[in-house]
Design goal:
It is a multi-pass membrane protein. Pfam families: MFS_1. It comes from Limnobaculum xujianqingii. The structure is a single chain. The chain has 15 helices and no strands. The protein is mainly α. Helix 5 (about 80-100) packs antiparallel against helix 8, helix 6 (about 105-135) runs antiparallel to helix 7 and helix 7 (about 140-170) runs antiparallel to helix 8 (about 170-190). It starts with a helix and ends in a 5-residue tail after the last helix.
């Protein structure tokens, strides 16, 4: 296995730096929108908690359909570079719609479709990065881990900035800032990323179906979906929980998300470095244990300082899942980088489907705090599924 310094040296050419910068920009665009969405729907669109949850569920379902169509096309004959550009431009249009429109159903239809294209730029970027790493002889695990760390870096800055812009200048300014990030991303992609068009395949077999390790892929899909569901319920309910039940400052939610994202960066790099030595399945076990301890901690502690300290466990939970989970899918689906990456991304969307339904319903019937009990139970279920995966 190559040393960490050697792997980092490979990140210094122009193309690799462009990949890192684009990952950061797409991360910023997402980090400006996602943390404040439940607050936006509650205060600006003035919806009930159950409709907030329905919005997340609907957007996730639409996201799965669109992203799988794009993944199938990209693995067969698409040029990922042009797909990323188009996705970023559609994402910018979605941000503009959110800036001016306050109609719930228009946002749930047109707005979600445009936003889905914007979010699909990220898995296509990772798929192109994997192909670029394989073609140029880079160590794919470390390259992807460093790339994913850029998104975490964006989430260090994004959530506090999002709450500052939304609360200080209004949601219109916040969404305009996200649109600018998308447009700038498309420009950098056009000038700096390699174009790797694929020859059209004669076979009509769906490329997105796993060709190998189908049972392991299915189990990993369930594990990742459960873990992302926990995270989704936390992101949806946490800002409202802090404000409505704990009566804590609104900006604390952004600080907590930024703290977790900052801690994710070293977690991802360390996990990427030790992935070959320890195995991806064992690292995923560590992540689930950290997540279980995190949600148990939320049962008992409400002090702002302790909530910030608990973000270390949250960072291990999400840092390993986001960095190693995607690579695990790619290892189980060799030759299907786009489909594997999008399949992993769709576990995020499945997580949002379940999280949206549960978070809104549980909050309306019981409380925002009750969601954390469900998250802990899902961590236990994820552990049982992970134990059945035979491929490490």
């Amino acid at each position: 296995m190559r040393s960490l310094p050697a792997s980092l040296k490979q990140m210094t050419d122009v193309t690799s730096l462009a990949f890192l910068f684009i990952a950061f920009l797409t991360g910023i665009a997402g980090a400006l929108q996602t943390p404040t969405l439940s607050l936006f729907l509650t205060t600006e669109v003035q919806t009930r908690p159950v409709l907030v949850g329905l919005f997340y569920t609907g957007s996730a379902i639409i996201g799965i359909i669109i992203s799988q169509m794009i993944a199938s096309y990209s693995d067969k004959s698409g040029d990922r570079k042009m797909l990323i550009i188009r996705c970023c431009l559609f994402g910018a249009l979605g941000c503009i719609l959110y800036a001016f429109n306050r109609n719930y159903f228009l946002l749930l239809t047109v707005g979600v479709v445009l936003s889905t294209f914007g979010s699909t730029a990220t898995p296509q970027l990772f798929a192109l990065a994997r192909e670029h790493a394989d073609k140029t002889g880079r160590e794919a695990v470390m390259f992807s881990s460093i790339l994913r760390a850029q998104i975490s870096l964006a989430w260090v800055i994004g959530p506090p900035l999002a709450f500052a812009l939304a609360l200080g200048f209004g949601f219109k300014t916040m969404y305009f800032s996200a649109a600018i990030a998308f447009v700038l991303c498309s420009v950098v992609v056009w000038y700096a990323l390699p174009s790797m068009p694929k020859a059209k395949q004669a076979s009509n077999t769906p490329v997105q179906a796993p060709r190998q390790n189908r049972q392991s892929v299915l189990l990993l899909f369930i594990v990742s979906s459960l873990m992302w569901t926990c995270n989704g319920m936390y992101i949806i309910n946490m800002p409202l929980y802090l404000i409505s039940e704990l009566q804590l400052p609104e900006k604390l939610a952004g600080v907590m998300m930024g703290t977790a994202a900052g801690l994710e960066i070293p977690v991802m790099l360390i996990a990427g470095y030790y992935a070959q030595r320890l195995g991806k399945r064992k690292l995923m076990h560590y992540a689930i244990v950290a997540g279980l301890l995190f949600y148990i901690g939320l049962f008992f502690f409400t002090s702002p300082w302790i909530l910030l300290i608990l973000q270390l466990l949250n960072a291990v939970f999400i840092g390993i899942l986001a960095g190693i989970g995607m690579l695990y899918f790619q290892d189980l689906m060799p030759g299907q980088a786009g489909a594997a990456t999008t399949l992993f991304t769709n576990t995020v969307r499945v997580g949002w489907i379940v999280a949206g339904s549960l978070a809104g319903t549980v909050a309306e019937i019981w409380s925002f705090h009750a969601v954390f009990y469900i998250a802990a139970a899902m961590c236990l279920a994820a552990t049982l599924c992970l134990l059945k995966i035979k491929v490490a």
